[in-house]
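agent> Task received from the user: take the single chain below, predict its 3D structure, and emit structure tokens. No templates, no multimer pairing.
agent> Plan: (1) validate residues, (2) run structure prediction, (3) serialize to tokens, (4) report one or two observations.
agent> Step 1 OK, no nonstandard residues flagged.
tool_call: predict_structure(input=
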Amino acid sequence: MPDSDGRPDGPIPAAAANAGGAEARADERRFRVYTLTVFSVGVLTAVAVSLWLPFHGSAELWWIGPVLALSFLLAEQLGINVDVRSGISWTISFTEIPLVIGFFVAPFEVVLAAHLVAGISTLLVRRVSGRVLYNAGAFLLEITSAFAVAGLVERIMGTTEMTWPAALAGTLTAPLTSTLLALAAVRVLRRRMRIGTALRLTGRILVVGFVNASVGLSGYLVIAGTANAWPLVLAVFAGLSALYWAYSDLLREQRDMEALSDVSLMVARSGQQAAARPASGADDLAAGVNVSEWQTIAERIKDQLSAGRVVLRLRLEPTADMRAVVAGEPMPTADLPADDPMLRLPGSHVRHFRITEANSDIAAGLLSRGAQEALVVPLRSANQLLGVVEAHDRLSRWRGFGKYDVQLLGTMASHLATALDNRRLVATLRHDAYHDPLTGLLNRPGFRQVAREPLAEHPDSAVLRIDLDVFSAVSDALGYAWADRMVVAAGRRLRDALGPDVPLARLEGASFAALLTGVRGQDVHDVADRLRAQLSVPYPVDRLTVEANAMVGYASAADDDTLDPGDVDGLLQRADVAVRATRGGEEVRGYVPSMGQIFLRRFQMVTQFRQAIEEGQVSVHYQPKVSLPSKQVLGVEALVRWQHPEFGRLDPDEFVPAVEAAGLVGVLTGFVLEQSLIRVRKWMDEGLRISVAVNLSVRNLADEDFPAKVVEVLRKFGVPPELLTFELTESGVMADPQKALPILRELHGLGIVLAVDDFGTGYSSLAYLRQLPVDEVKIDKSFVLGMGTDLGDLAVVRSIVELGHSLGLAVVAEGVEEDVARDQLEAMGCDVAQGYLISRPLAEDRLEAWLQARTARSTGRKMETVLTLLT
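)
tool_result: status=success, residues=871
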């Protein structure tokens, strides 16, 4: 006989807690009304059938009632559970066999009493006390409808004796009644079941009921009509039971595999969706979790186990608390204690608890959940607790949880633990991909992800770029560990100032970015100024206090119509332009379009530089250097010039730093070196020995192959190394002395002259100067220009001349523009002068004219040329 479960239950969609609780309470009220209706109708129909079919019993047959009750009880215990996707559970049992026999051996009241006693006793033994009234009503309706149909068939056949057609019809009515009651319960609780599914299920139940009734009827007729035939009937019954059990195992295995596959697929899809879901905030970035996905998984487990409730308690983030996802009946209490015994279970295997058999802690835990029975399995990975799965109170009318339920839940829990561990790994990787490991703030990709949506939704938004300008200085002085501590401290100050909800990122080094929404104009400037002030407060580093300065640039989305909504990169770029503009004096600047033109111009210069060299836009000019004592032209300094077709003549101070920053300094140095040596070679062919000085960049000194390249070009043009001078700054050398000094020593070893340029403005230390393998020093022009009016500058120049000579170095003075300065330098013993007094930098053709006009050439049999200034 197919029996409806005590409390049909179907999937409950994830909703807000209050809404879900209200819906559950409404379902409970409807089911109570339905239960009272079933029970009342059952009692009334039982009375009516009893009056229609009066009791005819005998005291000698008192044993029939207990035997029937025992038979019903045994038939139910040997039943086969069929769980339906909608949450309804039926038990295909053998109760049709004692029922069909009862039609022949006992009156209606005895069969009804036996069925009630067996059913209610089983419910009480299984501690399913909350559904006794509904099931009692179902028992009454099953038996009364069965006897009513059998009585009608008897009347139709015109007999008062029980016949096998009447008994068969009555027996089939019982499972049909039970099925209709359960389907009605599905409707009452507003669960979904397709009509086709309901019809197929009803048909299968009637087929099984017909087989059972036929077996019981045939066995009774054989035993009643044939002496000693009961062994044969018992053998047939045993064979049928074995067939049913085999079918039950196959059906159960198939359903368990389907459920396991469904749960695994749900978890896998959930993980893929979480990984692909765009981050909406700094916290969600790490979690990547949708609770409704776990709600669906909990519903599927509940349906498969036919449980009244399934609770998934999961730690979805490594450092987060447990979160509970409930499917089925609401929990009596929303908050469970932190020392809940279910969270302290060791291992990862399934435990089966009954409130009457468990210890006091577990019993208290079940009582707090309002459960009589529970399957509990911890989810672990590498001995770390990831969560707990709990299944409460099986819905089957007769059975509690069995070994198949334990096996299925254990396998599902293993899959869930693996999936949770994988999701935590993905969440960790996702967090690392979008966060800065030093400060824990967003990184550039993370800021782009988080800021895109709010920036598109709020036109009044601004992106701030904040730079702490002491990072490199602290790194050089104290090391990167202390610089990192300053960056962390700066990040904390920014987070405290902006609050937890403002997207904040560390872009690189000591550069940060923040997104402000709902602000514009002066408000943005005020926030930027406040942040600058807070970051500029001195930083305590161990026992030191490091002075700091910050610069802030910002760009407002509302002030730029050329940007698309949500263009984070565009605003970041403009904020970067603005923060670079602060180096002119202001420490807080907002972006204006004119700033972009400056950097656009630099970008064009960098991208067009190679082409400019090929097309002859870039040339080399030369500024002569003259010996002060003899007035002879000793050499020239090669200076690069660029005549741009769009921008006109470009100053080297504008394009050389951009070329260096773009990594094209090798191209620039190579071009100047080659053009200079070509010029030297021409002079040599004319019998002149004039050296050329070429400026080196710090990037040249970091190129290990640079000396070999110099040797190659010297050989190419046949120029002796002593006619080539390389000029370098102290700061350039000392930026990375470990790399620069070996290269300088190699160049010096080749015979190339090395000169320290702009001496007096860099380290200007005797210790540094003694480390460098140099041949001459060049006094910076700022001191030479001020000699005539500033006694301090005069003293500096005299000191440099004396220092250079004491170290055996030649001394060159730049910026000589007046006769007084030349005379003072000559009086000090300065070796070489260079400046506008002698000549401005000249193009190659003009230099030749200058040499022709201002020098005399004398040749003899042996070519020796001396260039002397005409006075």
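agent> Step 4: summary for the user.
The CA atoms of residues 817 and 839 lie 9 Å apart.
agent> Done.
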